Amino acid sequence: MSKPELWVVAERRLDHIEPTTQQLITKAKHLAGDQMHTVAVLFEATTDHLEDELKAYGPDEIRIVKDDRFPTATDAEIADALQQLVTSNEPNSILFGATITGRSIAPRLQAKLQTGLTADCLDLRFDDDTLVATKPSYGDNIMCEIICPDHRPQMATVRPNTFVAEPTDGAATVTTATITFHPVKRLQVKTATPVVNTATTVGDASRVVALGRGAASATTINTATKLAEKLGGRIGVSRPLTDQERFTHDDQIGQSGNTIHPELILNFGISGAVQFLVGMQDSQTIVAVNSDPDAPIFDVADYGYVGDASAFMTALLSQFN
Amino acid sequence: MKIVVCIKQVPETNDVTIDPVTHNLDRRGLAGVMNPFDKNAIELALDLKDSRDDVQVALLTMGPDDYAESLREGMAMGADEGYLLSDRAFAGADTLATGYVIAQALKKIGDADLILFGRQAVDADTGQVGPIVAEFLQQPQITYAASLRLSGDNEVTAERLLEDTKQTLVAQLPAVVSVRSELNTPRYPTPRNIQLSFDKPLTTWHHDDLDLDDTRLGQAGSPTIVTKVYAPEPVKRELTKLDGTPAEAASQLITALKGRQLI
Ligand SMILES: Cc1cc2nc3c(=O)[nH]c(=O)nc-3n(C[C@H](O)[C@H](O)[C@H](O)COP(=O)(O)OP(=O)(O)OC[C@H]3O[C@@H](n4cnc5c(N)ncnc54)[C@H](O)[C@@H]3O)c2cc1C
Ligand SMILES: Cc1cc2nc3c(=O)[nH]c(=O)nc-3n(C[C@H](O)[C@H](O)[C@H](O)COP(=O)(O)OP(=O)(O)OC[C@H]3O[C@@H](n4cnc5c(N)ncnc54)[C@H](O)[C@@H]3O)c2cc1C
């Protein structure tokens, strides 16, 4: 008997693979062990080779469906193509990135298949062949475990950057599948243009360069501005810096400022007072640079450097260039 | 032109706790309020109503009888009428079973040109109900719209922000749209509109008022089951030290951030 299939639906971002796809392939391989067959499902135009960005992560199979209409296909058209593949392959489970795209296509497919979909998951495991998905709710204050015992496939969307993508040596078999593309004439994507940085406040930024009293000189702030631009992010500050003319309370992170959870925050010259930490400790990746090895900010950091904030920032910026 | 805005009522705060004895969510004393994202959908509908004189705005919610309060609030903002779908048989529904009842009610209301949803409910946070309803009604969907305007007699043009792409989409009506909160600032009910709202029609439909397949309702019609609810553990982090000169340390950081796909 062939192994049950565990799918990851590959997502494209303009001409690339959305990184969440690679993260999910790594997670799917761990979940599958040798019990399941991991398949990355990829929709692309005839001349595309997005599979080249998936192979290194070693799914058992990359199943490609080609059609020149896919790059601008709408949610319902992709969901329809997926439904056809599900009908012919009967996967056990399907994982999507909980991106805007994943969160739009997955529920449309869920309705077609009349099955369960758990949203925005932070963890996944299998109990026998039941997928147990952990999802946050009430603004991440509560976690719940959700299963879909009697319907297949089991489906989940998974929050970006929850898992780390790991390249492996295993070779992926590349196969092609065919479906009938059913155009939905009533909805058309007229334009798709890249946006670099849509964050207008420190609260919406997915990358934040945070400055404290140990990184408050005008030159350091200028370097930090360039660094934030390179990262596609914004500057945020600890409270003492709101006294400077360039910053206002809107830029402040912490108990009496913004509570933020960007995917990346770099803290320069910030001691890590509890009133600051409550505003940022749920960030996904935390980096701290401080000249004091005992600064409390290091207790919540993933990466730390003991040394001068300005020197480190300058070195980091020059290596970006 | 008829617009139906789907709204949900949610607990007033997200500061919910777990009852240490029953391990259930402790929702005692939490008042219900309209899901804040749904006010953006109502505002969009009212904006369209302000721009032409043939627009009728109806609100629709599925939930217990006290959800009528959110319907009243929406009517006080300026919506013309409200529909409450209330029945014990609908209780415990996941997104699929919720979407089914809403879709059946929309079929009964009939001829809606535009069906609007909020971005997501702030409690369960799935954002799934809109696309499910769109599929059940076989209508085009535009999710997470950042702007929307009527661009023809029977057509809307919307902008949609993906992670790093902005799309412009054009849909023929009828269509289903869910909106982002950046789209607008919801208006407050004025005293006059509050007064007027009490005379606006609020229709309640129970199980027998709709054409329903009983196997698709409520908990029994929900494929998903919540098996455990708990308070999250604080994230435990392990500090990786960067060392050497600033240049060496910066280079270690760049490698690490590339590994995490952050750059
Ligand atoms: C009710 C209340 C609410 C508050 N709310 C907030 C809030 O919302 N947000 C907030 O930020 N604060 C808030 N605070 C203030 C908070 O307690 C701290 O005072 C503040 O966060 C300290 O900011 P800091 O880390 O920038 O400065 P400091 O604590 O002075 O730390 C500066 C750090 O920089 C390091 N340093 C110095 N020179 C260098 C160098 N050359 N290179 C590298 N490192 C260097 C030092 O070792 C030190 O750790 C609040 C306080 C109260 C009482
Ligand atoms: C802690 C918790 C976690 C849950 N997780 C999941 C899950 O992962 N998967 C799942 O399928 N179900 C889940 N549910 C069930 C889900 O909350 C209900 O199905 C709910 O009725 C609709 O889903 P939502 O709250 O996520 O709304 P969303 O899909 O986020 O709501 C989007 C929009 O749909 C409209 N809408 C939503 N509900 C209604 C309504 N009752 N009446 C009218 N319009 C409405 C509003 O416009 C709203 O802005 C969960 C429930 C709880 C309590």
Automatic annotation (TrEMBL), chain A:
This protein's UniProt keywords: FAD, Flavoprotein
Limits of the Electron transfer flavoprotein alpha/beta-subunit N-terminal domain: 6-199
Record-level GO BP terms: fatty acid beta-oxidation using acyl-CoA dehydrogenase
Pfam families with a match to the protein in the record: ETF (PF01012), ETF_alpha (PF00766)
Cofactor note: Binds 1 FAD per dimer.
Record-listed FAD binding positions: R213, S238, R239, Q252, I253, G254, Q255, S256, N290
Any GO molecular function: flavin adenine dinucleotide binding
Cofactor(s) annotated in UniProt: FAD
Similarity annotation: Belongs to the ETF alpha-subunit/FixB family.
Protein known as: Electron transfer flavoprotein subunit alpha
Organism: Levilactobacillus senmaizukei DSM 21775 = NBRC 103853
Automatic annotation (TrEMBL), chain B:
Pfam families reported in the protein's UniProt record: ETF
Domain Electron transfer flavoprotein alpha/beta-subunit N-terminal: start-end pairs: 22-214
GO molecular function, one term: electron transfer activity
PANTHER family tied to this protein: ELECTRON TRANSFER FLAVOPROTEIN BETA-SUBUNIT, PROTEIN FIXA
Protein name listed in UniProt: Electron transfer flavoprotein small subunit
